[in-house]
Every structure is written in structure tokens, then in C-alpha cells.
């Protein structure tokens, strides 16, 4: 364990037990309600009690669910039922989620049976749907290949990262919709974040790419590019934060709300990914930079009145993005993961905060906040699992609607919550005495 960690090994072991209980609950909810045992894949339009509200299936959730159940099997108990879920998901994706008009592409939205009920097909210039969806299927296939050894999964993963890269590098691509004023050809931090995540998962030991191969060279160059993008292009030294959007040529947006926008949720998520990449590279300088910036972003994002972290900030007016979704749970999950990384690998060199106080203090703070705001309201109503998000005070909603998937009358989140639990358990399990 890092010498900075003052908590006893037994205390953190007890926390891992609680994390694994939460993970078991998430698994139970999804296997009972969200795994489509009849047609395959995942159903995410669910009420709080698990009732199916819409048969719609979206590309993001299929790839993300594949990743979750592949990793659950591989690193959390080798339960054959988890591998079975992952295998049926992979089969559904490859056999029933291809775009009927573009055989090498994917559907964006279908009915329960897949492409035979396609509602939205591939839009090869849309990063928000086709782009990220392709990336999440690639990510799911990376983890499924590690879990199953199926070479078809690796082939899809390598094709997927190439397709995502080609799309975000196409100056005609449609902008991400989460920025204040979307425009064609925008460069977004989210793109670098995806590349950082995918390349690390390809390259982390043991690498799943053949040494010296064209794929390995391509992925390593993308990894270097993603690191440079985050640390140089998207970093604003005048405010010591990472911005969300640049012009296509990587020059700053100089006027309007895009020039002032910091997507704190993405920033926090990207920076913990950069910390893990630094660990993979054994690059202390990069780790220190990423850890320092992660801590700053969490401190800036904190809501001093109602708790938790905001997901967006206007750096000129010093105002947070406050709307019906400003306290999405995924942003809180990213804080938890980053704190666990700091507990495992230490605070940045030369920190003035002794004994890892920042990491343990903020881990406990965000963990308690999430239990109170996203779990407790459901338990009080006799309901399982967790809320997806909400307004500044996380007012309870009977139906949570994502603006990007209006066809779904309500949804549950099948990725960030279980991902954070798995990663935290893996990190804290690795603490030594």
C-alpha cells in the first residue's frame, strides 16, 4: 500500500466487501430485468422496479453491457453465468445488431429483436450515436476477447477503434450534442477520452495485440496522440482545467459559450484514465500531472451547498451548469474511481497534503453522497438498484428520461455504476499492509 495511506488494511478490506455487495446487487438487477433472455442483448428502458417500459435497444448499452459482464467474469469470480450473459450479448450484437443498409456498420436503435426492427441506422458522420456506439462495442469486444479468447471479438475491436478514429478525424462529422453550441468538425475532449480508454485496454499487460504488428503500431500511436491531446491541446493553463471543445484544427474556440465550457464530468473521467495510462507506462511525471489535475477538477466541481459534483462549468462567469440533469450519477462515479487510484498508487509527488488525506477524505465523502442521493430514495420506497441522475438536489423521479434517447420512457444505467464498483474493488483489493 502507498506509504501515504493511513487507514488500516482491514478498514479498506471492509470497504471492498461493501463494494462487492453493491456489485452483486447491480448484477442481480440486470440479470433479472435487463438481460433479454429471449432475443439477446440488454434492455435499458426499465422502471425502478424492473418493469420493461419499452423494447427499444440502443447501441451504447449493448457494447457497454458486453464490457461489464465480460469483466465480471474475468476478474470477479469466474462465474460461468456472467460469461454466458456476455456470450449471448456478443451473439446478439454480431448477429442481430448490424445495420441492414451498411453490413459493416451497426444499428443505433432497434426494437427488441434487433436489426429486423431497426429504428435508426448508422449515420457515418454522427459521433454522438454511431461514433461513440462503435467505440463502446469495440470496448466490449476487447474485454470479451480477454474473457473468452474469441478471435472474432478482437477483430471487431480493432476495426472499431479504426472506425471511431476515422470518424472523429473527418472534418464533416456531426458535433457532440453535449457542448453548448454544436458545430461540424468540432474536436471534443470526449474523443480523446475514448481513445485513451480504448488504447490502454488494448495495450495493458498482457497486450492482446501481436508485438510489432500494424495494429499494435496504430494503437500505440493513438495512445500517444490521446495523451498529448489531453495534456496539451485541451488543457487551459490560464484556468488550470481541461476544456471540452476545440476547432477542427485544434485551435481554441475564441468566442461564445463553447469557448467558456468545461465539461467537468468528462474532465474528471479523462484524468483518472490518464492516471491509469501513466501507471501502465510507468511514467511518474505523467502520473503526477494527471493526479494533480484530477484533484483540482474534483475540488472545482464540488457543490458546496448540496454536495456531489456538477458536470459542467462556464469558466468566465464562474457558473455551473444547473439543469434537470446536473447531478448525473456517472460524474460522481468517476470521482470514486479516481480517489481509489490515488489510494492505490499514491498522491502526486511533492504534495503538501500528508498521509493521503485528500484521497481517503474525498473517497468517503463521495461514497456517502452517492448512497444518500442515488440509493437511499429507492430503498425508502422498497425499490432496488440506484438512480441514474437528477437535478441539483437529485429530486426523485418516477421516470428518468435521457434527452438523447427520447424513445425510451425511462432508463437504467448499465455501465458507469457497475464499472466504478469493479474498478474500485480491483484497486482497493490491491492495497498492501
Write a concise keyword list for the protein shown above.
globular; 3-stranded antiparallel sheet; mainly alpha; 13 helices; disordered N terminus; about 425 residues
How would you describe the shape?
globular
**What is the structural class?**
mainly alpha
Number of helices: 13
Percent of residues in helices? 40-55%
Q: Estimate the strand proportion.
A: 5-15%
Computed Rg: 20 Å
Q: What's the SSE pattern?
A: HEHHEEEEHHEHHEEEHEHHEEHHH
Mean pLDDT: 94
Low-confidence stretches: 1-6
- How many E strands? 12
How far from one another are the termini? 6 Å
Strand order of the largest sheet: 1-4-5
Explain what this protein looks like in three dimensions.
It contains 13 helices and twelve strands. It is mainly alpha-helical. The strands form five sheets. It has a three-stranded antiparallel beta sheet with strand order 1-4-5. The chain has a three-stranded antiparallel beta sheet with strand order 10-11-12.
